[in-house]
Structures are given as C-alpha cells and as structure tokens.
Give the backbone structure.
Amino acid sequence: MRQNLSDQERQKLDRRIADVEKRTGAQIVLAVVERSDVHAELPWKAFALGAALAGLAVIVLDLLRCCLP
C-alpha cells in the first residue's frame, strides 16, 4: 500500500492533533485519502434549492403586496 504522507508530515500532524486534543478534550481522528468521491448530484441540488428559494420569495412578496396597505 502506498503511503500518502511522509514520516515528517505524519509526525507534524500527530503533534498538531495532540495539541488540539489536549486543549479541547476531544478526540480527533484523521483520515487521509488519495481522492474523494465526485458529487455528481450537486448541480441539480443547487438548482432545486435556487428554485425553492425563488418560489418562496415570490410567495412572500405576493403576501406582503396583498396584505399591506
């Protein structure tokens, strides 16, 4: 198995993690991966969010226009 980090990088990360764990009292688990997953669904989710927010804005503005003198 190919190592992603050199020994020097690993030691530096271990020191920094130990320092943060000491200050916060929380345990930190570090995972180093060569490549993360592709998020193919992100564009349509962004579009759906934008469409929902635009629809909400139209409804709110229509209610304000109708109900306020």
